[in-house]
Amino acid sequence: MAADIALLVIDMQRDFCEPGGYAAQAGLDVARLRAPIPHIARLLDAARAQGLTVVHTREGHRPDLADLTPAKRDRCAAAGAPVGDPGPLGRLLVCGEYGQDIVDELAPLPGETVIDKPGYSAFHATDLDRHLAAAGIHRLVIAGVTTDVCVHSTLRAAVDLGYRCTTVADACAAADPALHTAALAMIRGEGGVFGAVADTDTVLRAWRTEHPGDDA
């Protein structure tokens, strides 16, 4: 039954999807990272209309950076975007800053869960698994950025925890389209080792099948 489905929207933050944020400072193609926004908006509209659980995630660190590991600090600095540095949207990837919040087009509604995560996987050092279990969730539909890093890290953790996962190909993006394609190919390997891959239209049709009275 559809009540056991959650739409999990990964890291659609200004720091990744708007000029001046972390991704732009790191030299990534922000336009490519914004491309899934219309598809995710359709998924959100349908999920909300059908009463499905919606969860948003945001990558970010405490203002004192106490939860930033030395290894991640060094990686981000090497990319040209040190976590905590000042930028046009506030301190890069710091919780509570303007840039760390979700883009206006996909803003959470009141009552929707927002998970702040210090790592790439939404399950690392968060209560996401407990939240999903409490809601009776067994299936995840995953969208967001980036396909090759935070989406894939979250997906792999979810599979290990026993969730049945669908990654929405056109509702995800990587700054490098070759990495996006490769990440999706890894999901499909071995007969779907990391679950299913579908496009937005396919997911919406499946939801309508489970909710035949809905028009979303």
Short description:
Helices cover 38% and strands 18% of the residues. It has 216 residues and is an alpha/beta fold. It has a six-stranded parallel sheet with strand order 3-2-1-4-5-6, sandwiched between helices.
User: Which regions are unreliable across 5 or more consecutive residues at pLDDT < 50?
Assistant: none
Number of H/I helices: 9
Main sheet strand line-up: 3-2-1-4-5-6
Helix content: 25-40%
Morphology call: globular
**Distance, first to last CA:** 17 Å
* Mean of pLDDT: 96
* Number of E-type strands: 6
Strand content: 15-25%
| Major sheet description | 6 strands, parallel
Describe this entry's structure for a reader:
This protein has 216 residues and is of the alpha/beta class. The protein is built from nine helices and six strands, in the order βααααβαβαβαβαβα. A six-stranded parallel beta sheet has the order 3-2-1-4-5-6, sandwiched between helices. Helix 4 runs parallel beside helix 9. The longest helix has 16 residues. The mean pLDDT is 96.
